[in-house]
Amino acid sequence: MSYRLGVDVGGTFTDLLLINETSGATDMAKVPSTPEDSSVGVLNGIKRVCATAGIDAKDITHVMHGTTVATNTILTGTGAKVGLVTTKGFGQVLQIARSFVPGGLGGWIIYNKSDPLAPLELTIEADERMSARGDTVRKLNEADLEKKLKALKKRGIEALTISLINSYSNGKHEQQVRKVAQKVMPKIPISISSEIIPEMQEYERTITTVANSYVRPVVAKYINNLRKELKFRMKSVALHVLRSDGGLASVDTAENMPVGLLMSGPAGGVAGAIWIAKQAGYKNLLTFDMGGTSTDVCLVQKGVARTRRETTVGDITVRAASVDVRTVGAGGGSIAHVPELTGALRVGPQSAGAVPGPAAYGAGGQEPTVTDANVVLGILPDMAKLGGEMSLDSKAATTAVKRVAAALKMPIKKAAQGIIDIVNENMFGALRLVSVEQGFDPRDFALVAFGGAGPMHANALGKLINAWPVIVPPAPGVLCAYGDATTRLRDEASRTVIRKFKETTDKEVGKIFKELQEKAAKVLDAENVARKDQTVSYQVDIRYSGQGLVLTLDVAAKELKAGGLAKLSKAFDKEHTQLFTFALEADHEVVNLRAVVQGKASTVKARKIKKGTSTPVKDSKLGKTTLFLEGKDRPATIYDRGKLLAGNRVAGPAIVTEMDSTTLILH
Amino acid sequence: MPTTIIQPNKKKFKKVKVDPITLDIIESSLRSTRFEMDAVLFRTAMSPGIREQNDEFPMIANSDGKMVVGQFGSFIHGFIDAYDGTLEEGDIILTNDPYACGGAISHLPDWLILLPVFRRGRLISWVAMFGHMTDVGGKVPGSLPTDAESIYEEGIQIPPTKIYKKGKMQDDILELILHNCRLPHWNRSDFNALIAACRLAEKRIIELNDRFGDDVYYTSLEKVLDRNMRAMHHLIQTNVPEEKQYFEDYICDDGVGMGPYKVACTMWREGDKQIFDFAGTDPQSISSVNFYLNPEMFKMFVGVFMIMVFDPQILFNDGFYDLVEVRIPEGTILRPIKPAALSCRTHLLGRIFDIMGGLLGQGAPDYLSAAGFSDSPHFMYSGYDKKGDWYQLYQIGFGGIPGRPFGDGPDGHSLWPDFTNVPNEFLEAYFPLRIETYETITDSGGAGIHRGGNGIRMGYCFLEDGKVAIHDDRWLTYPWGVNGGTPGMRSNKIMVRVDGTTELLPAKIDNVIVNEGDILYFNTWGGGGWGDPFKREATLVARDVDRGLVSVEGAKAYGVILNKDGSVDEKATKALRAKLTKARGKVELFDFGGTIEEIKARCKEETSFDPPRTPVFDRRVMHLSDKAMAAE
After folding, report:
1. So what's the ipTM on this one?
2. In chain B, whose CA is at the least distance from the CA of A584?
C-alpha cells in the first residue's frame, strides 16, 4: 500500500492529509505550527496522522507541501541581514526603485516608503561593467571588491545578493564576484541575479534576488531539518514543495529559489478549492480561506485561477509567477480592541497568532479574538474540538471579550456580535477587490470557504457579496493540504533573448528551447519522473520591436522545425488584433523563451458520500444549543457532518461540526 | 457654435432606484476599466515616455461630460464649446491643439483621443485618453523647442479632427499627420494604442449598460458624482478660510535668458465657493515656457490635493466642480494668447503643485509640505548611429519628494501620478548610451525634522555622436523648506567631454552637440525640508550618513556631530544645536533661500551663470494687462 501526504504549514496550524493512492481514502490531522522551526510541527503531525490511519510512516512515498514560511519571513521582517553587490554607480537601485509613488495624483503627500530589503548601508559597488549585448566594458576589479566584501562581512551579513547591470545578458561578472565572495565569506549563502531571474530590468531583477536571499536561510533551515527527519522516518520518500504558481517543485529548487514560494500556502488552498469544486460541478469560484492570522481570497474562472507574472507580499513586488491571491489581516486570531482616542471597535490586523493564540485555546492568551467572540456567541460550541485534541476554554473567552464589552459599555454578546460584523466587513472588502473591482459580478460565482475559520463566516460572507452557492468542502481545515497532494510536479526554465525575428532563425530558437527544456527536465529527472511521463511545452514572449510589454504564445516543438517563426508572427498579429483591435507592420521581436516541463497529473478522486433523503438521519443531531444572532438568542441544532448524507437539508440556524472545523448556517 | 451631437433616440435618461451593490459594481467596474485602458496602452505603445514612464492619462465621463474616473478632470465641456461641428455614433476625435480645447492638453506632443459612446442611438458616456508622443515634428527632435517664439515652430497642429467618421478611419488624414513626424512608426503605434484603449473602455461601458440598463447606469454616475460633491463641500467649509490667502512662486527662466517668471494666486472662500484668483501672475513669455492652464484641470488638482491632505478615503471625480471657481487672467503665462509657444510648459505645470501646497497649507501649517519635485525635467538625445539609423530618446527625470507632515520625502521619486523611471538596462539595450551612474545626490534634500528627498545624479555616456537637449528648472530659485526646514539643493548639468574638459550647461538648452565618449551628469534637485532640523532625532541623521544620503558635513545642517565610528557625539551635538538654534532666531513658515533679488545677486558666484534678465513682455499682452489693472 502506498500513500501520499499533503502538508500545509500555516501561521497557526499545520494541516496534514494522508491519501491512500489506491482507494482514495483519506485521514487527516491538525497540529499547532511551530514557527521557531516549522519542521517540528510537521513531524508531530506525521506522527499523529499515521497513528490515526494506523499505518507505518514508511509507507508514505510522497510528501507534498505548501508553506508560508517564506511569506511570513517577509511579513514579519525576520529574514536574513542581506548584503548587496551592485555595479559601480548603481548602489541605490533599491532606494530609488522605479521612482514610483503610489496613490495617484497627490499620492506623494501621504506616501511613506519602507526601507529596502537590503539596507543601503549593506550595499557595496563592484567596479566592473558589462554592456547590454553582454560584452565586457570594464573588467572586474577584484582587489577593490575583496576589500569591500571584507568590510561587509564585518557588518555581520547573513546572506549575499549579487545583481550587476546587464547580467541578464552575460552573467560572467556575477559569477566572478561570487567566487571572490565565496573566498571572503565561505559560509554565507549567495544568490546571483543571472541565475535567479535572468531577465532585463535592473530593479526588478535586484529586488527579486534580494528577496530570495532574505528568505533563504530561514527556508533552507526548515527544509533541511525536514528532509533529514523524513529520511530518518521514511524509506524513500519524495519531498516536494508547492510553488506560488501552483506547480510542485523539488526541495532543491525550493531551497535555492525560495522567492518562488512566497505564495505557496495560498496556492495550495486555491488548488484544493478548484479540485474539490470541480468534483461538485462548479468552475467559477471565489475562494475564501480564513485562517488564524489572515484571509486569502482568489477568483477562479472556468476552473483556472488568475495568475500573474509577479508576486506581491507586503509592499514588496518580485518577478515570480504566482496565483493571484489577495490577503487581508483578518482571521480567527485577529485581536479586537477599542482605541481610547476614538472609542471605535477595531479588529486586527494584530493577531494572537499560534502562540499564545485566542484566549479560548487556554494557552495563556488574554486578548479577545474573533474566535473568542464566536465562542461567546455560541457558534463555537463547547463540544467543538480544535484539531481533535485541543478543547475550548469558554470561560477564558468570556473574560477576554468582557474587556471589549466594558470599553464599549455594551452587553457582552452585543460586543461579540460587533467583533464578528467588523471582521466580516474586512473580508468582504477583500472579496470585492478580486471580483467587483475587476469587473466580475460575484453573483455569478460560488464561494468556496475553507481554512480553520472560513466555514463559520462563510454564510455571512455569501450573503454580503451575493455569491451562490456557498461550498464548504469536507475537512475544510486541510483543504490546502488537499491541493498540495493533488498537484503536478512542474519546473520551468527561461531566458531573455532579445532578437528581431529577422535576426534569428527557427533553428536558433529551437536550439535554445532544447537547452531550456533539458535544464527543466533535469530537475524532474532528479525526482525520478521518467522522460516519457514528462509533458513539455514551450512559450515565447513576443512583441513588436519597440513595444514595452509582451504577449506569451505557446508553441509546439515540432512547429519550430518548419516555419515556426513565420507562424508565430501570424499568431501574434492575430492575438494582438483580438486583444487590442489592431496589428502593425512592424518587426516582431522575441523577448523571452521558456520551457515548461510537467509530471503526470494525480489520479486521486474524492470519495462520494451515500445518498439520503431531505431529512437528516436522527443520529446526525448532536444536540440543541443557543446562538446569539442578529441581536438576539435563537435556538439552534448541532449536526455531525460525518453523519449527514447527500441530499439532506438542514434548516438554520444550525451548527455543523466535523473534526477540524465548524460551519455556521444562518437562519 | 458648440458641437451638435446627433442622437436618433430622443428619449431622456430617467433617474431610477439603484441598489447599493449595483452602484458599487458600476463605480468599481469603471475604475478598473480605467486601469485596463492603461494596461492596453502600455502594452502596445512604442514611445518610451508612454510605455515606461506612463505619461498618458485616461478618462471616463458621463453623458454630460463630467469625469467619473480619471486624473486630470474633464475637458469635454471645453471641447464641446469650441468644436463647431456634428458628432455622431462611430466618430472619434483626434486633437493635439491646446488652443482648440481650452487647454485640456497643454502642448502639441500630447495627442488626445475623444470617443463618444453611443448605445441604441443615445450618447451614454465619453471616453478620452491622451499620451505624450516622442515626436510631432517642428524645429527640434522631440518637438519641445525651448526657444520657439510661436506654436508654429513646435510641430504639426491637429485641430479637433474626426479621425474616424461613422466608424471609418480617415487614412489620408492620418498619413498626412504622420508625414510630419520624425518617428512615424512610433506615432502610428501610439495612435493605434490610444484608439484601442478607448475602444476597450467603450466596450466595457456598453457591457455595463447591457447588464444594468441605461437608466441605472445614468443614475449611478449621477450618484457617484454627488457623493463626491458632498464630501468636498464639507472639506471646503471646514478647511478654507474666508479671509484671503496669498502665495507666489516662480519658474527660473524661459530658456532665452529672461526670468524668473512669477505665478501669483490668491485663495478665499465665499459662502459655498472656494475661489482661486491668479491676478498678479506675469504676462506670457515670448518663448515656449507658457502653460495653458485649463481651469477644470486646476479644480481637479485642488480637489485631489485637499482630499489627500485632509481625508484620503474620499474617491475623487468631477462632482464638486461647481464648488470651485478659478480666475486666470488672459494673456498671462497661465492663459497665453495664440500663437504663443507652449511646448515647454512642463515646468509651470509642475510648479502649480508647489503653489497649491503653499496656498492651502498656510492656514494649517501642520498639513503644509515643503516644495517638492515640481517638474518633469526632460532629457533628449538624437542623431544617426554608425549604421545610419535614426535614434531618438525622450526621457523624464526624477528628484526629491519634499519633507512632509507625514514623514521624510522619498529620494529620487516622482511627484507625478503613476510615473516610473525607464530601466537603465532598457535604455542601454535600445539606445546608444551607457549609464555611468544612477544614484541620489548626497545632501541634496533640505534639512528638517522630516528630511527632503535627494535629487538624482544620472550620468549618460554617449556611444554615438549626436545632439542632446535639456529642459530643467529650479537652478536659480530654491525648492523651499517649511516650518523651519531648509531648502533643498538646486539642479545643475555638468558635461565631461571625452578630452577631459568640463563645462556647466544651462538648465534649458537645445541642440548641444555631443561626441562619442562624452558624459553628461544630469543632476536634479532635492525636496525642501519639513520642520526644525535641530529637532530631528540625531540617530536618524547618523543613519542617513551611514547610508550615504547625508554627508558628515551635511549632518551639521541638523546640528549633528558624529564620532569617527559614525555614532552621534551627543555632547557636541547638544552644544551645536543650542548654538545654531540661538543664531537662527525665530522660525519662519517658509524658507525660500532669500528674496529673488538676493538670489539673483548671488547667482553668478553660485551657479557660474549670469542671472537671467528681467523679462520683457509682448506688447499686445502688456496692453491687456494694463486694461485689467485699470478695470481693477
Report:
1. 0.90
2. B189
